[in-house]
Structure formats: C-alpha cells, structure tokens
C-alpha cells in the first residue's frame, strides 16, 4: 500500500534535516536548507510503518500552504490550507478517505493569495479553478 501524499510532486524534508532560523515572517519557525530558505513540505512526524504522520508546506522558509495529518493507513485525516497562522479552508476525513467535515473559514481572496505563492490553481468566487 502506498501513502496518498498531498501534492506528492513537492520536495519533502524531515524537520531535523533543516536549519531552524527562529520565528518566521508569518508564524512558527523559519526553515532553511543548505543556506537557502526551504520550499516544500516539512515532515514533523512519521507513523511506525514509515508513512508521514504530520507535515506542513513552506514557501521560501515560511509557513504557507497545506498542513496535513495522515491516518496510519496513509490516507489524509486532516488538511488545512494555511497563510501563516491563518487557516483558509480545512477538511477532515475518516480512515477510508471519506470527507466528514470541512469548508472555508476565510475568504476565497486569501485562498488565491496562498495559491499564487504555492503554485496551485486559483479559484473564482464560486470555488471553481481557473484552469
């Protein structure tokens, strides 16, 4: 069985392999790799089976993008699109991958700001992508 990673094409690094630079611009720790601000997912924990348990997306060393927790079977348990400390949208799922809760908790304009920073498609006022 393979893990269903959020944005699987993105680089992932374990937080201990990165350099913590103190407080970030938006919130939390700023992470660097090889003398440069890190862009990709910072993995904070693994399940005993080796699957990622918890990760956060970063752009230029800053908290920006998806914060994701995974069930032990590799399916997403919780995901929240973050702009620093602000949550934009969140979703919760059972261990079969069925959504149990979620929705927008902030504006679609803020969603589009995060989308532009992270390379995701933006959405229109109705929630449709502009691809």
From TrEMBL:
Protein name in the entry: Antitoxin YwqK
């Amino acid at each position: 069985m393979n893990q269903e990673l959020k944005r699987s094409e993105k680089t992932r690094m374990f937080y201990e392999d990165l350099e913590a630079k103190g407080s970030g611009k938006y919130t939390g720790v700023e992470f660097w790799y090889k003398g440069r601000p890190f862009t990709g997912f910072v993995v904070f924990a693994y399940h005993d089976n080796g699957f990622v348990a918890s990760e956060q997306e970063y752009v230029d060393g800053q908290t920006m993008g998806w914060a994701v927790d995974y069930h032990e079977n590799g399916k997403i348990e919780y995901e929240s699109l973050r702009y620093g400390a602000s949550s934009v949208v969140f979703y919760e799922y059972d261990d079969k991958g069925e959504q149990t809760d979620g929705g927008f908790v902030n504006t679609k304009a803020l969603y589009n700001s995060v989308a532009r920073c992270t390379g995701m498609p933006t959405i229109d006022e109705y929630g449709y992508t502009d691809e």
